[in-house]
């Protein structure tokens, strides 16, 4: 790999004995500095991206790193061989880095990322395909705002990052990602985009521990099919088949009620893009022990050779020349433990195709192991990606401790007693920064105003915090501690590695009346219910799409795409009587251009009322004075809308339109589906 020297800005190639380095994760913008540009610093400095390189190197130097890896200027993209090596090795590059700097050029650090005023969750970085592995692979990740100021670390912001990405918090606590099913890992990439379609597959190579040659120009679908075939070579996890296609754009006519009569697209068992795994975040790995020595499957020249338990659908042969079966994938959903099945239609002999690819039927019945069929539609190997080896022993206990502005009221205390008589003293670097000698393992601080005190212990690679007689620490690889002081205020210490094997510790102070204190001290509450709606109404002759306008109150767990809207709500909580922090109901707002002369705003309310799931619908003229916020608040008043909420019905009507909320029987995000209808057409 090539590394950029942070002082003289020269690029050097290393094959062995790679030095300690920090790595930059960012989103590409206009006029980035390329490998060719960095050979001539005058040219490099003329590029708009130079400031990013300069600031990244500057931060690395401050933390005593001599080397940094930046993808824009450390890969010679004119060499196809080098590009292929870099794409297949990039996960390892990030995994082996001592620190990963995530630069968010579109984020201000003014607010805590959990604050609804923060633009952290809307950063472009969370929407890009390549940044998924850059979030997962490194051991230590620090987020930097547009001014290169620290926002927080992956550890300290784990709840917020989990809500944004859909990745379980346990991943950020150190759980190995290989323990998650193929479908779950695919779902983490479902809502991410890449500039080149083939990169939707190439950016996942490290996540699944496989290698393949990039072939730009082959197309995104073909590249993603190749990726799945490589995964199948090393895994027998059948959750790789647990995907849901984008629904057909043309819906059933009122007289085509029988869904088996629908002329659907037929598919194989491989998905065409990560987006088709958007509903699969709760799919567990398959239990192949159920099928014994028939668990292996493989590709041959006429398709996928596999054994599957079957359930016939008796009436299906009335509509097609060959019968349709429910084939069990031997996977379960974590929501209710339902078993996943797909529809297969027999074409001839042992040949089958998947039909209704936009559905995965959930059943409470376990697979019928008395009817396991051999049909054509991997060989079991050990995963090729290694578990990260701990390199803690390489880091010394040399610490530099700096009081951030919020903690300037604290004074460090020189050691007393036998330690003091030995001549050991804390070295002062500046007014607010000290350095601990290697023999001295702790430093104490005292507030001049509140009398608060705390002690930072540095007995090993990870610092710990002592307040009074309480010690906070452990073996978990935390880089941030936030603890309450005797006054009720809070102290926060954050450690970050440096290139000379030492550690930098920043100390911050948060007042107990700080409005953002709950965002730092309390875990992010997970929603109790999720609802999905497909925003299209179809007439006999044409489709009328609904233009999504927004969700109120804003939902950090929401997912909005071209074919669906997903939103969540919470159960009532006595500490939140106004339902603002954790709303028990939300409003989805759409614009509906019914004709050239008629446009409407449609507000669809849904939520939890005691044990009931309810919905309501409000249809207004386009220029109505009622905003989404105003409509939402009206359900809290004593009027008719509040009465509908308290009544808690799953069906509502307004004019020609109706809304209905029902529990789903198919794999999707959330447990409920919200359907909109009119008297004359529906979806």
From TrEMBL:
This is HET-domain-containing protein. Residues 222-313 form the DUF8212 domain. InterPro entries: DUF8212, HET. It comes from Tetrapyrgos nigripes. The lineage of its organism: Eukaryota, Fungi, Dikarya, Basidiomycota, Agaricomycotina. Residues 21-111 form the Heterokaryon incompatibility domain.
